[in-house]
Amino acid sequence: MRDTADRARYQTVPQQPDDARSLLAALLALPGRGLRSVIRSAAMTPGRLTVIAVGLIVLTALAALTASFAVRDRSDTLTDLTERREPLAAAAQQVYRALSDADATAASAFLATGEEPEELRQRYENDIAMAGSSLSKAASDPAATPRMTAQIDVISQQLPVYTGLVETARTNNRQGFPVGASYLREASALMRTVILPAAEALYRIDTERVAEQQDDAGGFPVVAMLFVIALLAALIATQLHLKRLTNRVLNVGLVMATLAIGVGVLWSVAALTVQSVYIGNGKDDGTEQVDLLVQARIAALKSRADETLTLVARGDGGAYEEEFVRLSGRMAGDDGGGGWLADVAADATDGTPLASEVALAQESAEKWLRAHAKVRELDNAGDYAEAVQLAIDVGKPDGAAVAFVALDDHLRAAIEEARQAFHDDTTAASQVLTLLAPGWIVLGIIAALGIGAGIRERLREYQ
Amino acid sequence: MTGHVSGRLAAVLAVGLVGVLLLAGCGSPGEPPNLAPQVTAQRPMPANAEVNPEIESIGAVSDDCGNPTASLRPKGLATPRGSTMAKIKKRGILRVGVDQNTFLFGFRNPTTGDLEGFDIALAREIAKALFGDPNRVRFKAITSQQRIDVLRNGTVDIVVRTMTINCERRELIEFSSVYFVAGQRVLVTKRSGYTGLADLAGKKVCATTGSTSLSNIAAAPSRPVPVAVDNWSDCLVLLQQGQVEAVSTDDTILAGMAQQDPTTHVVGPKFTSEPYGVGIPKENTDMVRYVNAVLRKFRENTWQAVYDRWIEPALGPGSPPKPTYK
């Protein structure tokens, strides 16, 4: 009845423009006129119901889409974390490790008299190859910051210079020229003062970015939550309004819509809680343990270089020995039972492969520190040849070389275990969210259909 | 009417098109992004190398100690109870501060791992006199500037490390009689054409930190720029890398470098006289007399053989210097 009255009123408006100017004015006036007519019809119940239905459906679409996007976004962040960010940090760690090991190995090879031992030469060459290929991986990060690029620049520029110096040292050494030792010291100084600090900075930045991304993935999706709360409030208000209007308690369509959104909220809360537990586990048992282990491993490598360089310097190596004491203390304490290794052991769950690898690493560290004390004792007593043998001979079971290689192997294995723990937990966190993103779309559609059906049922009563 | 309108439209379109083309022509298209910028190589330096360091001893060399090479008269090879020698014998090993990077004087033979050279042979001679065994020595490789410190803090018993006797050092430590006389000259690459320190005005010249050679370079009238490093071999590294123009120190050390690199040679006259002595802590005067007694025998018996083995091929024939005593 009223609809036809409205239509009649529209027809009274003059529709024939006299010229182009009045046509333009009419066009400009259209939106205003439309809005006015909506407001007018909203003042009457059937029109108001239509407006409410449209508003609720639009709000449903917004809530479902933002929730779905927020979930998709977190899922993407987690995938990026496991597929790109953490592997990049691992590559940076490899660069750092390979370079430190190359420095330690070159010094060891130099200590050996006569022909250079084949296994040391091979280890050095593998280190350089590993450093080069890990560096290209670390450099492939499209999201690298200028600070990261600067570190990679330094390493790429200086690594060929370093290897050149080491080869010049070898050539001179083979001819019996003492200038070879000077080339080796220059190479080592370049490595320690320029290249390794850059590698360390790169590793630090990469590790920080992993931690940042973990925090991002565990954050609260505020915008989506606001929309969902607004939608729920609107649905409840509509139902109360309709109850007052019609004295009917239930509107099946609107109840269905409310239930659908409620299911979405419960599902989201559960999934996000489980997910953040998984992310937290991935951090505690994974990346934070990896970081401590990496620091321990680097300290071990630097200490090893110090041990051999003390002998290369032959009496002029007080500074190297001081650094050994400082670094090995931070790695494993004075007796293998303290330092970063003890921190990792304290946080590792008993019985896990990580815990057993760390225990083995602590054992090797203790053996190495004992062997090192013996090396220093021999060297200080003037038994240089014996000290060198104990330090670099891989055939001596109680020697420093064997203990160090065992320590490095166990630390490598422990790092792999911790990385695996991170990967498992973070992948699980991502899987928890897999169905939630499409789930929100489906629930949104159900809610919209419910709203449409529910309102139409009421409108029909007016016709 | 229609033709007129479409003609005007065409004109408007044409003007617009020309305008757009003009605008496009005026705006620069920019440059292609350059991912491989020009960089220059950063040359590596030996650890602790320093260009134009502060040289404390410059001008402070006191010449008021008379003849610095005059040492205490030898008193035979007895090692009475309570003497420094007796303490060393009780310990069972002679601790000697040496160089391990100076070819011909003190260097590590990479094939055997042993230290060799003129200074090493002399140190072994002293051990042989004490213990009857030339191998009862613990060599401690030290840098030039550590020579006086290790004697004063008792880390070593003697220093045999191409150490020039002078008045300034004599205030801090004792010296044996002279066992070798060298003179400062200049090592340059053959291609450079330099003939001495006079040609090296404003050029970088290398020597070890704390050496008299470094002070002499800084004090040269041609004003070269001194570069200080830890070890003499580091100077050769810098010369080979083109980071210094010359190395200037005792001809003996330079000869050892020239033997390691055939593209270099020693040039110029000897412009200093560097009498080498064994460094001994100031309070151990009994040890000074003992070492001088060993040196007396060394000059007579083995000096020539050791010289001929290490130095003669590089510097030609030589004879032992005459000792002077107080």
Could you list some keywords that capture this structure?
heterodimer; A: 463 residues; mainly alpha; 14 helices; disordered N terminus; B: 326 residues; alpha/beta; D-Maltodextrin-Binding Protein, domain 2; six-stranded mixed sheet; three-stranded parallel sheet; 11 helices; 35% helix
Description:
Chain A is mostly helical and 463 residues long. Chain A has one domain (52-210, 240-455). Chain A is 86% helix and 0% strand. Chain A is built from 14 helices and no strands. Chain A has helices spanning 2-12, 20-42, 45-111, 118-139, 146-174, 179-217, 222-246, 252-313, 318-332, 339-347, 353-380, 384-392, 400-432, 436-460. Chain B has 326 residues and is α/β, with parallel strands linked by helices. Chain B folds into 2 domains: 61-181 and 275-315, 3-Layer(aba) Sandwich (D-Maltodextrin-Binding Protein, domain 2); 184-267, D-Maltodextrin-Binding Protein, domain 2. Chain B is 35% helix and 18% strand. Chain B contains 11 helices and 16 strands. In chain B, the strands form 5 sheets. Chain B has a 6-stranded mixed β-sheet with strand order 1-12-11-13-10-14, with helices on both faces. A 3-stranded parallel β-sheet of chain B has the order 6-2-7. In chain B, strands 3-4-5 form a 3-stranded antiparallel β-sheet. In chain B, α3 crosses α9. Chain B is elongated and about 130 Å long. Chain B starts with a helix and ends in an 11-residue tail after the last helix. In chain B, 47% of the residues are buried. The mean pLDDT of chain B is 86. The chains are: A mainly alpha (463), B alpha/beta (326). The interface between A and B is large, with 36 and 39 residues. Chain A: Keywords: Membrane, Transmembrane, Transmembrane helix. Chain A: It comes from Haloechinothrix salitolerans. Chain A: The chain crosses the membrane at residues 49-71, 218-237, 249-270, 435-455.
